[in-house]
Amino acid sequence: MPQHPFFDRSFSRSSKARNAEQTIPFVQKSLEKNLQWIQDEFHTMPDLQIKRFITNQGINAAVIYFEEISDKMMIFNDIINQLVQQGSSVQQIQSSTVIANKGENTSSLIDVEQAVLKGKSTLFIEGLSSAYVFDTADFPIRNIEEPNVERTIKGSHDGFVESHGKNIALLRKYLPSRQLKIKQMKVGKRGEIKVSLMYLEDVTRPEILQELERRISQIDIDVIINIGELQQLISDNKFTVLPQFLETERPGTAAMEILDGRVAIIMDRSPSVLIAPIHFIGFLKTKDDYNINWIIASFVRFLRYISLAVGILLPAFYIATISMHFEVIPLKLLLSIGESRERVPFPPLLEALLMEFALEMLREAGLRLPTSIGQTVSIVGGIVIGQAAVQAGVVSNIMVIVVSLTAICSFIIPYYDMSAAVRIIRFPMMLLAYLFGYVGISVGIMFLLIHIISMNSIGVPYGLPVTPIRLYDWKDAFFKLPQRFLTTRPDSARPIQKRKSQLSKRGR
Amino acid sequence: MSHMQSNKISNLQFTLFIASTQIGLGILYIPRDLMRVAGTDGWVSVILSWILATTANLIIIQLMKRIPGLTIRTALQRYCGKWIGGLFYLFIIAYLIFFSFLIVSAAVFIVQVWILQRIPAYYIMLLLVAPIFYLCCKGVKIMGRYVEITTMISIWMPFLLFIPLYRGNLLYFLPLIKDGLLPILKGVGSTLFFFLGFEMTMFLYPYLETKEKASFNVIVANTISMSVLMLVTIVNFSYFSPTQLMDTLWPTLSLLRIITFPFLERLEVIFLSFYLVSFSTTWVTYTFFSIYGLTGLFKRSLLPKHFFYFLALFVISSFFFTLSYNDIMRYVKYSNILGFFVGYVFPILFISYLYFFQDRIDRRRQTCDQKK
Amino acid sequence: MRPKKMILLLTILSLLLVSCTKTDIEDQTFSLLSGIDKKGNQLYFYSVAPVFHAEAKKKIEEYEVKSHTMRTARNEFDSRATALSMANKLQLFLVGKGLVKEHNIFALMDVLYRDVTSGSNARVVMVDGPVKDVIKFAPENRPRLPIYLTKLIDAAYLRNLTQRVTLLEFQWQMIEPGITPYITEIMLDKQGIKLKGIALLNNHGKYVNSLDLNESVMLSMLMRKKQGTYSLTVPIKKGDDKVMNKYMSATYTSVKDKVKVSMREGHFHFDVELKMDANITESIHLVTRDRNYLQVEKKLKKILDKDFKILIKKLQKNKVDPIGYGLYAQAYQYKNWKKIKDRWPEEFAKATFSLKTNVKFKYPGSVQE
Fold this sequence. Notes:
heterotrimer, B: mainly alpha, Amino acid/polyamine transporter I, globular, C: alpha/beta, GMP Synthetase, Chain A, domain 3, 13 helices, 14 strands, 32% strand
């Protein structure tokens, strides 16, 4: 029994009882009655256009569409014009011999309403108890441009846009293969939105796909605006800072992940695409690595791992050394540190937290400011205030160095989710280091390790290929061997077809 | 048991499990003990005890092969009667509990003496107990992965020991076997307990996924532990003079102290803190299986709250009393004796018992079941 | 379970916040230099530590206290300094000659070994003279005393003009029966602190004799651990010129020694062969005009043999074995060693040596006469 979306409250049980009593509106034979119903439902919506006209055969008809989200040219040329001037019958139009877009026949006014809200136009004809829906959706969208947060040096500079269809098109451009399949689902009770899962049929493990489908179909929400919400609704672990889906705006990256056997989740209205399943190491790889020389790529990968470690551990290490274990520092350094710390009235943890929070605030502020002011403020904030703070003796200069080095290291991580997680993990580490010295850091590392290795991403262990160990996959994890060695797909997506460039039995 | 079904560990994890459980506290105090008893030929004792321990471990594997699909507890209760079997099992569990408590207390003690002198013991206990709790709640599979990753990040530690070796004095080893075999045999007495950890095989075996290579894994695991102990022994023996070694309480740590890098001195502080990560595999195994055994014995399913109460007991006890060095050494002796029975004596007894009586008992059970 | 978890978490957090017995660097004095001396029958303890206060004019503070043991002296230091004193970063440990001559200093140093936090890398140094003078020595254009002294000793050690003995090595030397201890020796003269060489102690830790710089270089060539460069100057021929004589200096590299131990007539006999390569660094009036290097090599060998013999005789006369020939005896003659191991210095004095040097010229530098 189709439920009227206007009255649906996803958390209210009484609405179900209420809905049972509603009469289901059907398309009436009388044009005026249909139009009256539409006008009643769509009141206070001046952008809804009702264009009445008389067909060539003298029948009254009307087309309904929303002004800015339908392609008016198509409506006028292909529908109204055809009917009025060319004399095509409605059947001809509907069978798509004269119109490029799909057309559907429906007798439910609910479907009509849904369709019109999605940009489609509906044709009512006097005397017919069904309406024709034409797909003339033309939502305003951006041009294809490079995403801001995922820049590459070489490589294609295109990025996903906010249109579902265009994103699928971009992916098809990268993977023109018969095995690239799409599973479409609709999510959301109040505002339905299309979610598509794209995958390679002969590579992706069917269980992963089924699990994803199951989770998405169980989502119980009225509207999803951001893909981040979708991510939170279908992830395995709710209580973690570490991201469990890879969010990317580049078609190239998504295509490479699909090739490895992962599933790309595309949501309409979202310029990011989610990749699942993903593992920890996956956040430290970029598409650029495959574009440059393998030795340099290995070096850059190695650099990323070091900056991951530094980003998490350096402030903690510094605080532990300064407050509890200064005998570890060689004498000359110790004397200079002692001298610079002498002028600071705060204990090291407080000093570090002060600097870290200042940096985080600057970072957040920098996001909100327009670029012209943003640059000036960051220079002023970063350099001048830092310098002034050191001179005033509020922080020591070594602390400034440590904090800025940490910040730089967290920027090296290619994906925002992971670098944000690193930023957060730093703070408990610093606290542990201050309270318990190196032992605290060890315990913190233990906790972090246990956390990482116990997580699963759609049933695949998060710690692959480190734990459980898959030495064979290390050739593309910490360093990158030349392309000719990378002939098998990594186990981290549990693909059912291990060897690359192996076509399925049916050909491409 | 569904707990076993969902918690399979791979062969590599099995190997590393045994090896990391063995490499624990022993590294820090055994060279001194060995020098006291065996002199500079103690390294031969290491090899001898390695052979003994591997043999005992292989016997355990054979034992487990004889009782496929059963755990030690169910096997004991099946073949020895519910109460007698339960009693034996309780003995084993008591050893595990005692040893896990001892290990954690020893770790707290060392940390307090060497690194965090001014922090009270119960804090350190709380700190060390927290990750154990977290890990135990996750189960054996995650413990297996944990063991893999801690081994990987601890790989650099043995290499540090090569630096004092360079400044060592290999002349101390000459002449070989200077005082005859008797000191070496006495030395076996002290190194034998380093390899304790292999009795965990009894508990780990049911979780192993592919059981065919278990014997090979066991040999590899014991060899890994042996090489680490050998390295530590040789480095200690070559750097310290025999009398000096006997006077130094934690010779390995004193050794590390002399290593200096341009940016770091006093390395033993860092080493010891990091060693805790590798050490945690020892105490997590013992703690997990003690609670596992206890709950199994009393026919309850394994729940996080059991771990919680057990570990809370540790913390609360450390609040009230702390162990001294002599206490720890004494308890180590007791646990060594207990461990000797559990690891070396019990498997031999049980397997010979099974050799003679298993068929008879199985047949009797079959007829009993048929009658029903 | 949820409210229980919350309560637990809160109690843990509150406990954590209450803890905190923390001291930062600036609240700690770590002595960089420690010293013991005696005047009459009273022991004096010294400590030199850096000062971190921005307001202080001098960057260093020195203390002298009278006490019985090092630990009580530390309490005294605490009563004067603005911070807690620790021995974590100790660089130098000075002892006065007057003290070492008559007493076993190793017994006094016990706290440095027993305390887990003290560093084992401090260098043990004997001062030929009162320690107080060295402590007070603070010239304007030199870095802080501990740093200056450390650098002096380390630099000299690289040239093998002296030996650098850390606390751990000193303990090893004292406890090991096959070797007698030795430490660096310095003195204070009008121009400042000067490195005298090596001070030899007997196996009770008391001072017996010293070796000057030249002898120190030779001693280090005999030692088991070789590092750095060895530079010796030997007179080749005594001429009539009183001011300038025929000398040759050479740097010796790749020094290798082979020691064989045997028993002869009830005492030990050591056959030592010393192989080395020589690079000439200086030759004054030297006869190499005829380019007969073999001749010079032979002469050098004879002179070196003689010099080493004199050195070993000196060691034997003083009944000290800093090189550690006892270790070789233990390794190669274990049964005989076991009998006499508690009296090794006397046996060493009775032992016979046959030391041969084997010098090869590597290259004469950029000038060839």
